[in-house]
Design a protein that fits this description.
Order of helices and strands: HEHHEEHHEHHEEHHH
Strand content: 5-15%
Number of helices: 10
Structural class: mainly alpha
Strand order of the largest sheet: 1-3-2
Helix content: over 70%
Largest sheet: 3 strands, antiparallel
Number of strands: 6
Distance between the termini: 198 Å
Radius of gyration: 53 Å
């Protein structure tokens, strides 16, 4: 009897667990709903995870359940996904009544120039203003400033190049205005056009900002090696020249020393001959004086 009693309790336990899961999920959806309504802007998955005190995967599941629930109801509000963010927005079927209340909705009218510039930013982002002008072939200051004013593009950083020009990319407002949830949903460009755009952007980066640093570095390294080799060769030539000069100098010095010794020997020989000559002259003078004295003593002779 006890075994039959335990078996009969299992279905009730499973239902209780399922009911607890439904309540927990409902509370998570309500929390996400309140967060989106209170902030009034797009909310990232990280923010939803912090609000629910759980990981990103659980936060995404809760947000997706809430979005599916709003889609199913088709009432005045929708939960829209923008890339990896979520935002509470009004349903398109309510626009007409909202416009009558607002009377003058702020909906910018884009000129052909602005649309062309926006298309370049959308497909080539992040991109600098100089790159936009290179693709269009004309100045684009006014168009870029107008798109920033409309909130369709924004500055997302600076290029690591001389002058550090600003980089522009599309915004969430761009996704809302054009009715896409992600940039991946934009119509694809023809392959030849995409290749041409990439080549033009690459060429612009090289010409305007000198980003072909790797090639310049390699050329500089080769030049440095060549100069170093030339310097080494010059040093070796200079060393050989110095050694040759020292050898010749030593040879010249040896010749000079030998000539000096020869001259000194010759001078010593001349001095010796002069001394001997003087001695002979003195002896002859003495002999002559002796002869004269003898003759004076013997006049007869």
């Amino acid at each position: 009897m006890e075994e039959f009693g335990q078996i009969s309790l299992l279905p009730n336990l499973g239902e209780e667990i399922e009911e607890e899961d439904r309540i927990r999920q409902k509370e998570e959806e309500n929390q996400v709903e309140a967060l989106l309504f209170s902030l009034g802007r797009s909310v990232s998955v990280e923010e939803i995870a912090i609000c629910l005190n759980m990981g990103k995967e659980g936060a995404i599941l809760a947000a997706e359940r809430l979005r599916a629930r709003y889609e199913e109801r088709q009432e005045g509000l929708l939960i829209k996904k923008l890339e990896d963010r979520y935002q509470m927005v009004s349903h398109p079927k309510t626009y007409e009544g909202l416009i009558r209340v607002v009377k003058s909705p702020r909906k910018p009218v884009l000129s052909d120039v602005a649309l062309e510039t926006l298309s370049i930013v959308a497909y080539c982002q992040p991109i600098t203003k100089v790159e936009i002008e290179r693709i269009r072939g004309v100045k684009s200051d006014h168009a870029v400033n107008r798109l920033v004013e409309y909130g369709l593009i924004e500055e997302v950083g600076r290029l690591d190049a001389p002058g550090r020009p600003m980089l522009f990319a599309t915004t969430e407002e761009f996704l809302n205005r054009f009715g896409v949830d992600s940039l991946k949903e934009l119509p694809g460009l023809p392959e030849d056009m995409e290749k041409l755009l990439k080549e033009e952007v690459t060429e612009e980066l090289k010409d305007s900002f000198g980003l072909d640093m790797e090639e310049e570095t390699e050329e500089t390294a080769d030049t440095a090696d060549t100069e170093e080799t030339a310097d080494t060769a010059d040093t070796e030539d200079a060393g050989e020249t110095a050694d040759t000069a020292d050898t010749e100098e030593k040879e010249d010095s040896g010749e000079d020393i030998e000539e000096s010794e020869d001259i000194e020997d010759a001078e010593d020989g001349e001095e010796i001959e002069t001394a001997e000559y003087r001695e002979e002259t003195v002896e002859e003078d003495i002999e002559e004086e002796g002869t004269e004295e003898a003759n004076a003593e013997d006049p007869e002779q």
